[in-house]
UniProtKB/TrEMBL annotation:
DZANK-type domain residues: 67-111
Residue stretches of biased makeup (Basic and acidic residues): 14-31, 42-62
Region (Disordered) location: 14-62
Protein's recorded name: DZANK-type domain-containing protein
Alphabetized InterPro entries for the sequence: DZR
Amino acid sequence: MDWLKRLLRGHGDGHRATYADGGHHGRDRRGGHGGHGGHGAAGEHHGWGRGDAHRADTHAPPRDVSCATCGAPNAAGARYCIRCGSVQRGRACVRCEATLPADALFCPACGTRADAR
């Protein structure tokens, strides 16, 4: 049975001792929870979730914008359509002035109807 106790060290009856010491699932000395999903000494996140998962990806490339004339995907900063050559004029929201995709019915930033004036 000694091999079983060593295998399950920190679990079962021995778990109470580690809990009181602030071990596996107990509280750490700072008053927070130890164990899974906490924060390390330097404040870094560890555990199942990622601490930066809620942040927007600021390094993502700009999305393609559909041409208002032919619907072809164009780079966000393109001045002319790569398929039909028409000028790519970006529309802006009348309320918040956010750039609207050519096929947008509502502003993605504030929800105002795109054709509202």
